[in-house]
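Hi L.,

As promised, MFS-type transporter involved in bile tolerance, Atg22 family:
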Amino acid sequence: MRKYLAKTLIISLAFFTISLAWSIYNSYVPVFLSGLIKSSTIVGAIMTIDNLFGVIFQPFFGRLSDRTKNRFGRRMPFLLVGIPISALFFFFIPWYDRLDSLFPRHNLSLAFIMVLVILMNFFMSVYRAPAVALMPDAIPPSLRSRANGIIVAIGGVGTIIALTLGGSLYKLGKIYPFMLDSGLMLLALLVLVLFYREPETPFAADSDEEKDGDAREGERGRKGLFRPSLLFMLLTVFFWFCGFEAINSFFTLFCKERFGMNPGDATQMMAPMVLTFMVCCYPGGVLGSKMGRKRALLLGNALIVAAFLGIVLIPDYTWTTISLLICGVGWALINANAYPAVTQMAPAGQTGRYTGYYYAFTFAASIASPILYGLVADLTKRQGWLFLYGGVMFSIGLLFMFMVRGKAISE
C-alpha cells in the first residue's frame, strides 16, 4: 500500500470537497429556506434535490466518464468542469437575500436561492461519480478496500472541518463557511491538476484470474443491473443506507423523546461515533483485504444490528453512547469495503458506470427511508422505534448480502 499511499491521498481530495460541501450545505441551507418558507415539508422536499439528482444523473455521468478519453484523462474533465462551477454557485448561496435591496418591490430571495441550489446540485452531480471512480482506476483490486478506507476517512475530515471551523465562521457571518468551502474546493482541484495524472490503462478486474463469473456474464451481453450478484449487492447497499439515513435524520428527535435532550446536545452525542468511524475506516479496509470483503461486511452489519438491538432493549444514556461507538466501527467496515466490492464486479472500462449505480442506490435510500420512517413515527406517535427500524433495514441488507456471490466480494 505504501507505493500507492501518496496517490490515494491526492485522489481523496476529490471526495474531501464533496464531504465538506454537503456538510455545510445540510447544516445551513435548511436555515436559509426556513426563513423564506413556512412549510417544513416543502423545505424537506427541497433538501432532497441532491439525492434526486444523484439517482438521475450520477449513473449517466459515471458511464459518460468511462467513454471519455482526452488529454485531461477520463475522469478529470468532469472535475475540471464540476468543481469550479459548483463552487461558484455554492459561494453565492448565502447571498440569496441581497437582491431584495436591489429590487425592493420584488421578493426575489426564494427564486435566487432555488436557482443557486439547483445549479449547485447539478454540477456536483456532474463530477461526483467520476471523482469517486478515480480510486479504482489507479489502485489495484487487492488494495482498494484499504485505499477506500483512507478516502472515506479524509472525507470525514471534511465533515469535521465543516462542523467545527465552519460553525465558528458562521457566528462571524453566514457567508464565511461558504467562502471557506468554495476556496478549499478550488485548492483541492489545483492540487489534483498539478500532482495527479490518470493512468493510461486503468486497473480493472479484466483478466480471467480477476474476473468473477458475474462480470464475465456481463461481458457476454447481460445488462448490468440484471446480473444477480450485482443487483443483490446494490440492494444490500440500499437497505444499509435506509437504516443509516433514517437515524441520521431523526436522531435528535429520538434523543428528545427518550432522554429529554435539546438538539445541540443530541448532535454532540453523535460526535464520538463519527470519530470512531474515521479512526476505523483504514483498519476496516485492511481487515477487508485480509479476511475478505464479504466477511468484513458481514461483521460490520452484525455489529450494527447488535448495537441497535442494545439501544432498543436498554434505554440508558451511557449504553446508547457505547452502542453508537460500536456502530461507528461497524459503519467503517461497511463503508471501507462496499464500494470496492461493487467496482470489482465491473467489466473492464465500466468503473464509472458501476460507481454511478452504487451512488444511485445510496441516494435512493436517502430519499425513501426518511419518508418511510416518518410514516412509521406518525402512525405510532413515537420516535422510539427509530433503532428498531434501523435494525430491520440492516437485517434485510444482511439477507441480501448472503445472496451475493463471486470473487469480487469474497477476496
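Residues 2-34 form the longest helix (33 residues).

Thanks again for sending the construct details.

K.
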